[in-house]
Amino acid sequence: MKTKLVFVAIGGLAFTPLATAANTTELQPDRISLFEVALRCPAAPQIGCGSSAKPILLKLEQESSVSEAGLNPAGTIVAVVWKVDSTSKARDKAAVILKEGEAKEIKGKPRDKELTEFLSGRGWYRGADVDRLSEEEASIIAARLVNRVQAKTALANDKAERLRQVLADTFRKMFTEGQNQKGLSVQDLAGGFLDEKQIAILKEAIQKGVRPLDGEK
User: Fold this and answer.
1) pLDDT tens track of the chain, all 217 residues?
2) How many Cβ atoms sit within 10 Å of the Cβ of residue 89?
3) Domain total for the chain?
C-alpha cells in the first residue's frame, strides 16, 4: 500500500484459502497457471500488498474462464485456477490482466516447485481475503511507529499497547475500507493518553514515513 501520511493532519474477515486441501487433489496441473508478480508491500516487504492485489484478483475472477485466483503470502506469485471447460483463447485473454502488470508466467522446474506449494493449500489469499494481508500490514506499521516513539521517550506498556492498537486500527480502515483519514490529527488519535512531548515524538515518527528505515523490520 503506497501510503503518505502527514500527521499534523493524517494527509476480521473470514479466511478462505485458495484451492484448499479438500479440493486440490481434484485439480489437474494443466488447470493451474502460476505467474511471478511484484506485489510485495513496500511498507511491510515480508508480505504481499493486499490493497494492490485485491482489484487484480477480483478482476481475474470475473473472467468466464477463471474458477479462482489467489496471491501467495509473500506477494510474489499469483495462481489462477481455470475452469474445466475453459479454452486456450479464453485463458490467454484473462492472463492479459496479469501481464499488463508485467507479470511473467512461471514454467518448467520453477513451476513444478511452486505448484507443489500451491497444492499444499497453505496460505493463499483470494480476492476479498487479501484484506487479511492489509490488516497484517497495518499491524506491522503500527508496531514500527511505536518502536520509533519508544526509542526517544519512556512509554508505559499500557500506553504503548494502546497506541499500537489505535494506529493499527487507523491504518486498517484506510487499507481495507478506504476511509480517508486526511483530517485526522495525531492529537485526535493519541491526545487522550500521550503527553505533549510524546505527541511531538509521534508526529516526528510518522513524518519519517511508514516504510522501514535502516535497521527496522
Assistant:
1) 444 443 333 333 333 445 443 354 467 888 999 999 999 999 999 999 999 999 999 999 999 999 999 999 999 999 999 999 999 999 999 999 998 878 999 999 999 999 988 888 768 999 889 999 999 999 999 999 999 999 999 999 999 999 999 999 999 999 988 777 666 788 989 999 999 999 999 999 999 999 999 999 8
2) 8
3) 2
pTM for this model (two decimals): 0.83
Tell me, what CATH number does 46's domain have? 3.30.70.100
Q: How many CB atoms lie within 10 A of CB 184?
A: 17
- String of DSSP letters for 64-117: TTEEEEEE-TTSSEEEEEEPTT--HHHHHHHHHHHHTTT-EE--HHHHHHHHHH
One-letter amino acid for residue 93 of the chain: K
Domain end (from 72, 92, 125): 125
On whether the CB atoms of residues 32 and 69 are closer than 8 A, the answer is: no
DSSP-assigned letter for residue 15: P
Within a domain: 6: no
**What nine digits make up the cell of 187?**
492529537
The last residue of one of the domains, among 104, 125, 146, is 125
